[in-house]
Specification:
The two termini are about 20 Å apart. This protein is of the alpha/beta class. The strands form 4 sheets. The chain has an 8-stranded parallel β-barrel, surrounded by 8 helices. Strands 3-4 form a two-stranded antiparallel sheet. The chain is globular. Helices cover about 35% and strands about 20% of the residues. The protein has 9 helices and 14 strands. Helix 1 crosses helix 2, helix 1 runs parallel beside helix 8 and helix 7 runs parallel beside helix 8.
Length: about 270
């Protein structure tokens, strides 16, 4: 079972939790803690010194270098960025090359209500980002906030913009989008193209219980401060690593073995 730690995000703030990593060094330290706790991959956004979200390639370069000098965890960068960013800004980390290049990048396959905002992903923009991910030589993780986004992934594959089998991430529980319900997860799993792998990222209080559900169904899980800041009701997690440790315990209690980064690379077809 591949556990991904979403360390930063674009929405969580230091006002909400003092444990949010912002600087490159803080991200590197937290990534190493997550690796030790059982994560095989980190999903990262980056921030400016004032804490505001950014997709600047140099900020990503600094964070990736800090991560890789501390541990062997896989690095997945966001191309979603923050609500309101343009496509060139969102694709900043895709310009990194050589030893600074990430191992994977996300690709959201449709627009969705996102709290009081709209996460804007019209079809031409999705295809543009898909081409950029392919040109960078990376495999995408297909971010699906609703079942129709799986169908859109099928359309991308028909157009030669992505390859199947692919890896999907089901994001459940975003206000305004598909709720975190058992039936929703089962429907999305049943809707996958043959041979594809999947992770579930449930939001807020649903995060850790959905680790159990994903483990039971043969899937993978994403946890971390990007999606949830609490380890239990009203109790702040002291970093994403604390959430990873809980997820690891849950996965092993369900009989799952935690994937190493090397095993995750094979499971997610990143070789």
């Amino acid at each position: 079972m591949v556990i991904t730690a979403a360390l930063v995000g674009a929405e969580t703030t230091r006002e909400q939790t003092p444990y949010l990593p912002i600087t490159a060094a803080e991200i590197g330290v937290e990534a190493a803690k997550c690796r030790e706790a059982g994560a095989a991959m980190v999903h990262i956004h980056v921030r400016k010194p004032d804490g505001s979200p950014s997709q600047d390639a140099e900020l990503y370069r600094a964070a990736i270098r800090e991560i890789r000098k501390r541990c062997d965890i896989l690095v997945q960068t966001s191309t979603g960025g923050a609500v309101g960013m343009g496509v060139d800004e969102r694709c900043g980390p895709l310009t990194l090359t050589g030893t600074d290049r990430p191992d994977m990048a996300t690709l959201s396959t449709g627009s969705v209500n996102f709290g009081e905002d709209v996460f804007w992903n019209p079809r031409p923009l999705v295809r543009d980002i898909a081409r950029r991910i392919r040109a960078a030589g990376l495999k995408p993780e297909l971010e699906c906030f609703d079942v129709g986004m799986i169908d859109e992934a099928r359309a991308l594959a028909k157009q030669g913009l992505i390859d199947f089998p692919a890896h999907f991430d089901f994001v459940l529980g975003v206000p305004g989008a598909l709720a975190a319900r058992v039936e929703a997860l089962d429907f999305m799993v049943a809707s996958l193209p043959e041979g594809c792998t999947w992770t579930c990222a449930a939001i807020g209080r649903h995060q850790l219980p959905f680790v159990d559900l994903s483990a039971e169904r043969g899937g993978n899980a994403r946890v971390g401060l990007e999606d949830n800041i609490f380890i239990s009701k009203g109790v702040l997690a002291k970093g994403s690593s604390e959430l990873v440790a809980d997820a690891a315990r849950r996965a092993q209690a369900k009989g799952r073995t935690l994937a190493t980064p090397q095993q995750a690379r094979q499971l997610l077809r990143l070789t």
